[in-house]
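Action item from last week, closing it out:
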Amino acid sequence: MSARSISTTIPPLTDLLAALSYDALRRIGAFLGVGLRGAGRHHKRTWVLAIAAFWEDSARAKTHWEKLSPPARTARTRLLAAPAAPAALFLSEYGGLRALAQLHPPFSGAEQLFLSGLLHAVGGGAPQAAPRLCTPPLNVALQSNPPAAEIGAVAEEGHPPHTPLTVLHDISQALAFLLQHPTLPLQHRRWLPPSALRALNRRLAAPASLAARSTHRQTSTLRTLWFLAVQANLIDGAHVTAAGWAWAALPPDAQLTTLWRAWLGAGGGADARRAYHQPDAGWDDAIRARYTTWLAHCATPFSATDLANALLSDETLPVAFFVAHFQTLTALDHALATLLDEPLMALGLVARHSYHQHRVTATGRWLLAAESPPWLAWKRGAASAARWRHACDDTLCLQVAWDAAPDIQLALAQFSVADADEPEGDGASVHRYCFTPFSIARAVGLGASMAALWQALTALDLPLHGAEALQLRRWWEEAATPIRVTLAPVLRTHSAAQLAHLAQQAAIRPFLAEVLAPTAAIVTGDIAALLARLRAAGLAVVPDAAVDPTPADDNGLLWLAGKLYQHLGRYLPAPAPIDTRLLDRLLTSQPPWQQALLQAQYERLVEHLADLLDNLPFTPPPTPTDPATWQALIHTAIEQKQSLQITYFSAGRNLLTQRRIEPYWLEEHRGVLYVRAYCHSAARVLTFRLDRIQALEAVSRSSD
């Protein structure tokens, strides 16, 4: 350790005895059976030399030592290993030390040690009032109590073998579990309910032994797991954070480093340590730095008591720390044993060497001393052994290796049903993710990125054109077009010709978002400005209600940005999903009028995005057709309210598509002719470029 050793500063027995009072020396002499005669017995120095000579006499020293009680002998052994231990803990452990005038049989272990001349105050004086105590080294070898018999090395149990990947896997499975339970209620806002605790425990590589009524709070393994996830900001309540998604995509060594730094906490995790009942709750950064430094230099197996002795001997740690947190030395030993067995073993810093001892692992030496990191890797591609398993007609199950990359497993989890990952034969060696129409719809409703699922399947070397992927796509397409109830400002005209005229006015066109019917369109933007422009054009306008001139605030704009982010998840794998429930809260914070405007603006931006994709073809389009070829047929269909069947080139898909439309009017933008029409395939009003129409024919009324 960085602190200097105290054992080298303890003075010899004669110096320590000289610091005691004359009366104390006489009591010690009487207890040892040292008799003095003559005038010398009245001199303090004579008693000091006589007591020191007693302990130099091997025969007398050993005889007296064997007469002492086991607690007294144990007390000296402990004090030799932890020189200058805090007096409060030592005396609470070994029976206390009464004032000299009150010393009478029976004596405690500490009192026997004092009356034997072997218990002293660091720095001199009466040990009854000292902050730290010590015992002098002797030239006579005194037999200590035999150490507790050690049991042979403890075999690691469970599957897979304990590696640094174990805790990383288990935390990632906790994140996956929360994604599959988006509405999971936590007890006291931090504990899993019992049924959820058992379901998660079955998925872990290092599951806990749960009794019939075990709770999350009572289960140290899962309590520590949850603390690490909270401390690293991977979860917030029962929700996976953006930091959690980013952590899942890191390589294993970076994931472990993140957890280790979060556990160290730098003082920022005091509340979380108390909330999750960590063994070092309330300890300051100094003590944490001391024992991690000691572990970094520990090259041999050690016990919790060895670590405690090193801390007790550290002069830089105040006595007040030990007094504030521990009543006895055994309490300190127990706290450090729990610390080693729970968070430090979970992080892979230490491992069991025997029943009483631990050892620092290679991973621990890397984390503590910045040595070369261990070689760790998650499985991807064919190594993940991914394969489809068909449960029934409306369920698809995908099986992957337990150590498949966490970011892949999280992407699968958010689209899969809850509690489908039951162990089969190999226990936690594989994980199953089952998909149903309901689970896909739930994920889409919460804002999950479907492109992230396609990316995960690709990372597992699974084809996107297989029957299973096509089934997933069908379920997604059904879920991506739900029934929606929205508020929207609507502009109504008395005729289709009037709306067609407005749609081609440069001053009015930016306000028209979506045409609902030949005489109705959703409007967006500043409604007051739209009314002003309509009136400036000489049109009579009658708004249904007073227009709120207040623009959307930050919450409204954040909702708009979040909705666009979710929509882009159809085309790009989003780094992390935005929960739709959060967006709903942002929208409902707006007045109804602003909600309607924001929803209209969102629909228009989505339409612009579709136009953008359509104008970025991957291959050159067919030779454009002459718009004049189609104009007469379209005019006739508008006048007769007749449907048309068109063969149309969709640039975004690079395909010729068959569409049935009901044309409303023709319009022109930048010299290009378009037809505004209701498309039966899309179930909405769209705009079609005439030069992309490859064929057109009227649909007879009988076919309607």
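Closing note: The longest strand covers residues 655-669.
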